[in-house]
């Protein structure tokens, strides 16, 4: 009895989540796809490390942290570009994207130095 | 209306110019108050650690940066050597090297020593400006200027950044404050640009000082505090998440830190809070997207599933951490968390005088008046409580705790004290000056001082600036009353225009004014308080913290005596010994010996190898023959001891001797501390134990001491020595400085033949001795 209500609740939850997500604008969905891509790449690298071993450790660290880093920066971009977000309503999206590019440049410069 | 706007822009412009001028004066003050040691002594590098940094900077300027990264030092820790590139925090040396290179390429030929000596005062001026920026983000321009003025003079910071104190803290405090400023700026604006700058400033901090772990634990603590008190916002995420990723990468780039950035417990807090903030961000996102009923369903589902996963992950983590004996923390961090740890397990860390807990008077000596103003500042931070002010409160609470554990960390406490005192002082001045204006001119004023865009705020800021400028000028002894009177008149005129504008806003608080006499008296008393602070700071800088400790002075009836014995001894060593000769001494003098005398040493101030130091300590505590054996096995040629008994210099090796015994005894169990104490007391007179009287340190310190005054009276220990007439069989005195402060001995070469005491062998030995005298080989040691 309790099980069916929980499953029904879960289904209703997923339905409402999906309907809410469909309503988000396209540019935000593109950023979300990029975030998921970066996260999946990081997971693949971790799985590879557990199979093959962690030497050289700096390469592993820079690879994983570059994926995590771009995911985090993309989340920040998404926060700043989102029109529903009242704190950033007077920040032009071009400025947000320029900051995103700058931060990525610094991140990848460090990554390339650390990659060995 | 246009007139009012024009007047306010003129006022704002005037205020900006005035504040820039004040900041310049503050920078100049910070620089010049640290120059007392250069004036009283000379432009020389102080203490012990700065000599090593100076030597490394010399190497950097001579050989370039690639050789610097690969620098392997074979003139120290003989025979082990030291990988300098991998064990040095490069920030300070790279900064000084860059400044030297820039100046020389502009054809300003400053020597490396001059650049090194003056690095600290220059960076303290930068640190004051950084404090202004940080406090401006928290409370406003007036508080910023006051805090900057307080930091430029605070004795605790002066003690580690005088001209000549070329140590990590000189640039690290600047890096600390600017990192905090950029973090608060990102938190206030939510701009990713400042987040990038924050990570770069954090990288500079990691390069400069081991105290960067304070930042990487304080910022996650603050993020947790914000989340727990319900102040989560997307700006918090932008301020924190990129810092963790970029910061960890940048920290791993520095060779000294390397993989410790992800493997040690000092960084775990940042990763934990990284995960937590992602969970919280997701929760807020879903909450915004779903309806409340659905959100409740989501919460129940997630909590049941998530709790199971969480427990599994936490169990794995705990097992990993518990498997290491120190739970992943380094020795120094553990001694900070548990103050009794070092004295139980690592006597070297416990023996450093900077690592002892401070006494109550040292708080008053080091931050003086700020000790009363800090609680007022904490209260002022709560009205109103913002993200920035909660950060400052957390900073001061943690830094007060750590400063109570270790005297050296009073330095981290000083900027927090200055920020909070600046907030308190400027708030108090604001209230009193507003009361005076209200009482004199009887008009309704805008009571909210902290909002940056109201006209009354700029007027209030101007009045603060006038007050701070008054402080600066009273220090410089140029009170120009004409200028101040003119400013006051312009302030009055603009007052009336502001009042008409502010009367329109009805929703502001009723302003409660204090009586005129009370306000005037209060302002007078506050100014007196700051005057006492200034006097104390200048006194502390001139008398207490400007001693270079390599040159000592004393005033007697005959005038000023200068004790330059250390440099005399190092110069003797560099002129009268071979380049490859090894010198043994206690680790305090290692850096100075390698830098000034240019000889190889056994142990130095880096203290990375406890066993090697224990070997030297055992040698100093053993009788002559055993000590000779130990030193001979390490290829030592000369032994250096510091002796203060003739002149009364209290920091000599006999006073440090018990630490040598303890450290040696920690590794070699045949050295027992109790053997050197008579009834638990440390004595060197005729009641001393025979082990003490036979130890190498006693013999080397007091050899021929009785010849100096006939009685052998030790001025530091205030007694006559126990064993007065003795000979050295295995060492030979080669140099004693003018005031007997440094004594250098040479190891006797090993004997050619060994006497065997039996009857038969006696006759044999007489024949062999006669034969050996005929065919004596040339002794390579002579």
Automatic annotation (TrEMBL), chain A:
<keyword id="KW-1133">Transmembrane helix</keyword>
<comment type="pathway">
    <text>Protein modification; protein glycosylation.</text>
</comment>
<feature type="transmembrane region" description="Helical">
    <location>
        <begin position="33"/>
        <end position="51"/>
    </location>
</feature>
<comment type="similarity">
    <text>Belongs to the DAD/OST2 family.</text>
</comment>
<comment type="function">
    <text>Subunit of the oligosaccharyl transferase (OST) complex that catalyzes the initial transfer of a defined glycan (Glc(3)Man(9)GlcNAc(2) in eukaryotes) from the lipid carrier dolichol-pyrophosphate to an asparagine residue within an Asn-X-Ser/Thr consensus motif in nascent polypeptide chains, the first step in protein N-glycosylation. N-glycosylation occurs cotranslationally and the complex associates with the Sec61 complex at the channel-forming translocon complex that mediates protein translocation across the endoplasmic reticulum (ER). All subunits are required for a maximal enzyme activity.</text>
</comment>
<protein>
    <recommendedName>
        <fullName>Dolichyl-diphosphooligosaccharide--protein glycosyltransferase subunit DAD1</fullName>
    </recommendedName>
</protein>
<keyword id="KW-0812">Transmembrane</keyword>
<dbReference type="GO" id="GO:0006487">
    <property type="term" value="P:protein N-linked glycosylation"/>
</dbReference>
<keyword id="KW-0472">Membrane</keyword>
<dbReference type="InterPro" id="IPR003038">
    <property type="entry name" value="DAD/Ost2"/>
</dbReference>
<dbReference type="Pfam" id="PF02109">
    <property type="entry name" value="DAD"/>
</dbReference>
<dbReference type="GO" id="GO:0008250">
    <property type="term" value="C:oligosaccharyltransferase complex"/>
</dbReference>
<keyword id="KW-0256">Endoplasmic reticulum</keyword>
<comment type="subunit">
    <text>Component of the oligosaccharyltransferase (OST) complex.</text>
</comment>
<feature type="transmembrane region" description="Helical">
    <location>
        <begin position="97"/>
        <end position="115"/>
    </location>
</feature>
<feature type="transmembrane region" description="Helical">
    <location>
        <begin position="57"/>
        <end position="77"/>
    </location>
</feature>
<keyword id="KW-0053">Apoptosis</keyword>
UniProtKB/TrEMBL annotation, chain B:
<dbReference type="GO" id="GO:0046872">
    <property type="term" value="F:metal ion binding"/>
</dbReference>
<keyword id="KW-1133">Transmembrane helix</keyword>
<dbReference type="Pfam" id="PF02516">
    <property type="entry name" value="STT3"/>
</dbReference>
<feature type="transmembrane region" description="Helical">
    <location>
        <begin position="201"/>
        <end position="225"/>
    </location>
</feature>
<feature type="transmembrane region" description="Helical">
    <location>
        <begin position="298"/>
        <end position="322"/>
    </location>
</feature>
<feature type="domain" description="STT3/PglB/AglB core">
    <location>
        <begin position="580"/>
        <end position="639"/>
    </location>
</feature>
<feature type="transmembrane region" description="Helical">
    <location>
        <begin position="413"/>
        <end position="432"/>
    </location>
</feature>
<feature type="transmembrane region" description="Helical">
    <location>
        <begin position="390"/>
        <end position="407"/>
    </location>
</feature>
<feature type="compositionally biased region" description="Low complexity">
    <location>
        <begin position="764"/>
        <end position="773"/>
    </location>
</feature>
<comment type="similarity">
    <text>Belongs to the STT3 family.</text>
</comment>
<feature type="transmembrane region" description="Helical">
    <location>
        <begin position="170"/>
        <end position="195"/>
    </location>
</feature>
<feature type="domain" description="Oligosaccharyl transferase STT3 N-terminal">
    <location>
        <begin position="17"/>
        <end position="420"/>
    </location>
</feature>
<feature type="transmembrane region" description="Helical">
    <location>
        <begin position="115"/>
        <end position="134"/>
    </location>
</feature>
<keyword id="KW-0460">Magnesium</keyword>
<keyword id="KW-0325">Glycoprotein</keyword>
<feature type="region of interest" description="Disordered">
    <location>
        <begin position="756"/>
        <end position="782"/>
    </location>
</feature>
<feature type="transmembrane region" description="Helical">
    <location>
        <begin position="237"/>
        <end position="262"/>
    </location>
</feature>
<keyword id="KW-0808">Transferase</keyword>
<dbReference type="GO" id="GO:0005789">
    <property type="term" value="C:endoplasmic reticulum membrane"/>
</dbReference>
<comment type="subunit">
    <text>Component of the oligosaccharyltransferase (OST) complex.</text>
</comment>
<dbReference type="GO" id="GO:0004579">
    <property type="term" value="F:dolichyl-diphosphooligosaccharide-protein glycotransferase activity"/>
</dbReference>
<comment type="pathway">
    <text>Protein modification; protein glycosylation.</text>
</comment>
């Amino acid at each position: 009895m309790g099980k069916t209500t929980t499953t029904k609740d879960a289904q209703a939850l997923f339905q409402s989540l999906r309907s809410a997500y469909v309503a988000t604008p396209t540019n935000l969905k593109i950023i979300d796809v990029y975030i998921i891509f970066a996260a999946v790449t990081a997971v693949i690298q971790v799985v590879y490390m557990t199979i093959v071993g962690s030497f050289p450790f700096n390469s592993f660290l820079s690879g994983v942290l570059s994926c995590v880093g771009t995911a985090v920066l993309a989340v920040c971009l998404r926060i700043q570009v989102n029109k529903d977000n009242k704190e950033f309503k007077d920040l032009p999206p071009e400025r947000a994207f320029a900051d995103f590019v700058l931060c990525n440049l610094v991140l990848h410069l460090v990554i390339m130095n650390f990659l060995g | 209306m246009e007139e009012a706007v024009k007047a306010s822009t003129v006022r704002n412009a005037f205020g900006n110019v005035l504040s820039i001028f004040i900041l310049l004066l503050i920078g100049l003050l910070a620089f010049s108050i640290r120059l007392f040691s250069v004036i009283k002594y000379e432009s020389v590098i102080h203490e012990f650690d700065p000599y090593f940094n100076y030597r490394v900077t010399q190497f950097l300027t001579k050989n370039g940066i690639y050789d610097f990264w690969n620098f392997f030092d074979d003139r120290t820790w003989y025979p082990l050597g030291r990988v300098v590139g991998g064990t040095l925090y490069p920030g300070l040396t790279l900064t000084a090297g860059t400044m030297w290179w820039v100046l020389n390429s502009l054809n300003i030929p400053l020597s490396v020593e001059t650049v090194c000596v003056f690095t600290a005062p220059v960076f303290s001026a930068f640190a004051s400006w950084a404090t202004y920026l940080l406090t401006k983000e928290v409370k406003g321009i007036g508080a910023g200027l006051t805090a900057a003025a307080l930091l430029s003079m605070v004795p605790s910071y002066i003690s580690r950044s005088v001209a000549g104190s070329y140590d990590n803290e000189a640039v690290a405090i600047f890096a600390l404050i600017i990192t905090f400023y950029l973090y608060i700026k990102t938190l206030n604006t939510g701009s990713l640009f400042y987040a990038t700058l924050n990570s770069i400033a954090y990288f500079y901090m990691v390069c400069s000082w081991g105290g960067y772990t304070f930042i990487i634990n304080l910022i996650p603590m603050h993020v947790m505090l914000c989340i727990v008190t319900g102040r989560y916002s997307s700006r918090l995420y932008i301020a924190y998440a990129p810092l963790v990723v970029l910061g960890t990468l940048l920290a791993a780039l520095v060779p000294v830190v390397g993989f410790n950035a992800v493997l040690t417990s000092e960084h775990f807090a940042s990763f934990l809070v990284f995960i937590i903030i992602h969970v919280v961000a997701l929760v807020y996102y879903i909450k915004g997207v779903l309806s409340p009923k659905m959100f409740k369903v989501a919460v129940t589902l997630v909590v049941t599933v998530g709790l199971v996963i969480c427990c599994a992950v936490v169990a794995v983590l705990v097992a990993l951490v518990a498997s290491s004996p120190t739970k992943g923390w380094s020795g120094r961090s553990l001694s900070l968390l548990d103050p009794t740890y070092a004295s139980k397990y690592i006597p070297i860390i416990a023996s450093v005088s900077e690592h002892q807990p401070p006494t109550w008077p040292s708080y008053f000596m080091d931050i003086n008046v700020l000790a009363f103003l800090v609680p007022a500042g904490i209260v002022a931070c709560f009205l109103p409580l913002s993200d920035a002010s909660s950060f400052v409160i957390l900073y001061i609470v943690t830094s007060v705790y750590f400063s109570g554990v270790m005297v050296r960390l009073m330095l981290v406490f000083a900027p927090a004290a200055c920020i909070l005192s600046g907030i308190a002082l400027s708030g108090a001045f604001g209230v009193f000056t507003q009361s005076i204006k209200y009482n004199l001119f009887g008009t309704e004023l805008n009571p909210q001082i902290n909002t940056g865009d109201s006209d009354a705020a700029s007027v209030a800021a101007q009045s603060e600036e006038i007050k701070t400028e008054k402080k600066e000028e009273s220090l410089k002894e140029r009170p120009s009353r004409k200028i101040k009177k003119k400013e006051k008149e312009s302030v009055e005129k603009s007052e009336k225009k502001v009042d008409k504008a502010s009367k329109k806003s009805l929703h502001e608080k009723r302003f409660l004014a204090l009586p005129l006499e009370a306000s005037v008296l209060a302002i007078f008393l506050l100014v007196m308080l700051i005057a006492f602070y200034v006097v104390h700071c200048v006194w502390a800088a001139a008398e207490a913290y400007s001693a270079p400790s390599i040159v000592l002075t004393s005033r007697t009836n005959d005038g000023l005596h200068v004790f330059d014995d250390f440099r005399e001894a190092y110069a003797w060593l560099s002129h009268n010994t071979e380049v490859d000769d090894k010198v043994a001494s206690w680790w305090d003098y290692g850096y100075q010996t390698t830098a000034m005398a240019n000889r190889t040493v056994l142990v130095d101030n880096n203290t990375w190898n406890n066993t090697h130091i224990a070997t030297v300590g055992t040698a100093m505590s053993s009788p002559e023959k055993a000590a000779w054996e130990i030193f001979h096995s390490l290829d030592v040629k000369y032994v250096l001891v510091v002796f203060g008994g003739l002149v009364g210099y209290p920091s000599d090796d006999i006073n440090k001797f018990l630490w040598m015994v303890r450290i040696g005894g920690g590794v070699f169990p045949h050295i027992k501390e109790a053997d050197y104490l008579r009834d638990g007391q440390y004595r060197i007179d005729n009641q001393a134990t025979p082990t003490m009287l036979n130890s190498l340190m006693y013999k080397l310190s007091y050899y021929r001491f009785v010849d100096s005054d006939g009685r052998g009276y030790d001025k530091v220990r205030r007694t006559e020595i126990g064993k007065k007439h003795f000979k050295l069989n295995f060492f030979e005195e080669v140099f004693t400085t003018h005031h007997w402060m440094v004594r250098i001995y040479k190891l006797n070469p090993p004997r050619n033949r060994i006497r065997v005491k039996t009857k038969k062998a006696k006759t044999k030995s007489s024949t062999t001795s006669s034969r050996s005298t005929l065919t004596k080989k040339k002794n390579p040691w002579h």
